[in-house]
Amino acid sequence: MTRIRHVSRPLPAVAAALTCAALLAACSSADDGTTTVAAGTGSPAAEPAQTRSATPRLAVTYDGGVLVLDAESLAVVGDSDLPGFNRINPAGDERHVIVSTEGGFRVLDTGTWSQTHGDHAHHWTAAPALTDITFDADEPGHVVRHAGRTVLFDDGSGRIESFDPAALADGTPQTSSFTTPAAHHGVAVELADGGLVTTLGDAQTRNGIVVYDAARTEITRNEQCPGVHGEAVAADEALVFGCEDGLLIYRDGAITKVTSPDPYGRIGNQAGSEDSAVVLGDYKSDPDAELERPQRVSLTDTVTGELRLVDLGTSYTFRSLGRGPFGEALVLGTDGALHVLDPSTGATLRTVPVVDPWTEPDEWQTPRPALFVQGFTAYVTDPSTDRIHAVDIEKGQVTTTAELPHTPDEITGVRG
Known about the structure:
Shape: globular
Number of helices: 0
Distance between the termini: 25 Å
Number of strands: 37
Helix content: under 10%
Radius of gyration: 22 Å
């Protein structure tokens, strides 16, 4: 049973209930939970209108399945069995989550939503559950959402599939596909104009990116990015891809290389915000380390190309990076604290203790504290205690803590 220690204030982006429009006289609730809106008397008939709202949800993987939580109370509202090591990402429609699992990308419906149509309001709850929608993949890898499109990358075949996530509500959506010349652990982003940016590589090496237009004719490429990995989107559709010696920035039709200050300065994981021109990245400088535990992060300005390194005084992992509601750079340290940085200067705005100090495990698949940000709230999992914490980023304090029935691993969410 989930135990709630402290209930947070409502998330700013979430309505507590459906609001009756001013042109309606009254709202009432039926015994079955359905809200009925009565038409006003003595007023002209309202034009039919449709609005939707939903409860934000979180999805948390564990060994053997996926939990769905209410993002406000942190109560468990769903539990789906799914064997194997699973990874999760938002699908892009604020309702579904994509699970990278054996055999492909599988879609999880997170559950509750409501609708007002014309003079009638309806609320119904679908139990969170795995759907029958699956995108086949030999080795399902990165999932990227941008400009109203969701892009899936199959590491085993090099196949890229993109689709409109809003179509998931009606079943398996129609997809557009493209296959890279060689299969590799890669990533792709579809641009607002229909263009495509994807990594270059094969089973042995990865060395850059290539840009195609909407007709999939090559526009430009850069092959000076050894070990290319990860992506992030910043303000004005600036795209960043990490290299073992810096970054590649694609902006306004051109690719720019940003070189690390160290001969080996790997930036393999990035977190972007469309409210900021600066991208937050990790930073590793020891090419011989079996497991480097870095204490510096990178902040790269996608307009000027300036790369700034910030020493946190604590290490972190690839599940530690996030962005705040105003573009703040967030890093969950192994000191157990959430570090909130000004992305422009690297200055620490606040440090929020969340969990006990911890050590990064040797195997990357082993659960460790993970960070996910949604709106003004940062969510932090704690596998050592089977708990999850909600942190108010502005106030700099933990507002809600809940115990989970399983040891948490990866975490993501939807706004509803």
